[in-house]
């Protein structure tokens, strides 16, 4: 095994151990299922087929999109401010967001909401624990 692969495996093991320590609520999320159900454009898979709960993730029709890279982002909140206020921002400025402290973050894939989660700290790094995953059927409805 290469050093990079060993490093990635060690990091994955650390995260798994840390998540076990913090208590798992018993819900597991298959990352392949999340990627397959995000509605990535440019695929030959019909939306009706993705909406069918009986379509397995290992379906050969979905294999064409499983290696497509996507952007995963967490949204803490947002606000609208005038450009004049934006230009006055400097180090130490505080921007008030539209969320209450402690409210779950939005987990977005290519700008589409797929889950909500809470911030966790593992070995001095930030992470996110998914608390609510939006069903593939609901995500597809939001795309239409």
Please sum up the structure shown:
The protein has 144 residues and is an alpha+beta fold.
Model description:
The protein is of the alpha+beta class and 144 residues long. It has 5 helices and 4 strands, in the order αααβαβββα. It has helices spanning 3-21, 31-36, 47-51, 83-87, 136-143; strands at residues 72-75, 105-109, 112-122, 125-133. Strands 1-2-3-4 form a 4-stranded antiparallel sheet. It is extended and about 50 Å long. The model is unreliable at 38-47 (pLDDT under 50).
Q: SSE layout and pairings?
A:
Elements: H1 3-21, H2 31-36, H3 47-51, E1 72-75, H4 83-87, E2 105-109, E3 112-122, E4 125-133, H5 136-143
Antiparallel strand pairs: 1-2, 2-3, 3-4
Q: Specify the biggest β-sheet.
A: 4 strands, antiparallel
Shape: extended
H/E element order? HHHEHEEEH
Strand order of the largest sheet: 1-2-3-4
Count of helical stretches: 5
Calculate the terminal CA-CA distance, rounded to whole Å.
44 Å
Uncertain stretches of 5 or more adjacent residues: 38-47
> What share of residues are in beta strands?
15-25%
Number of beta strands: 4
Would you tell me the overall average pLDDT? 74
* Global structural class: alpha+beta
Helix content: 25-40%
The Rg value, from CA coordinates, equals 19 Å
């Amino acid at each position: 095994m290469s050093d990079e692969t060993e490093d990635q495996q060690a990091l994955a093991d650390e995260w798994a151990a840390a998540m076990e320590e913090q208590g798992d609520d018993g819900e597991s999320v298959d990352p392949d299922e999340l990627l397959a159900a995000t509605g990535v454009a440019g695929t030959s898979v019909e939306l009706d087929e993705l909406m069918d709960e009986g379509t397995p993730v290992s379906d050969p029709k979905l294999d064409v999109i499983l290696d497509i890279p996507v952007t995963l982002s967490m949204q803490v909140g947002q606000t609208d401010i005038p450009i004049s206020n934006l230009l006055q921002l400097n180090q130490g400025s505080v921007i008030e967001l539209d969320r209450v402290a402690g409210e779950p973050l939005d987990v977005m894939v290519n700008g589409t909401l797929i889950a909500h989660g809470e911030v966790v700290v593992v070995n001095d790094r930030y992470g996110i624990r998914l608390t609510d995953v939006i069903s593939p059927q609901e995500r597809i409805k939001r795309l239409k």
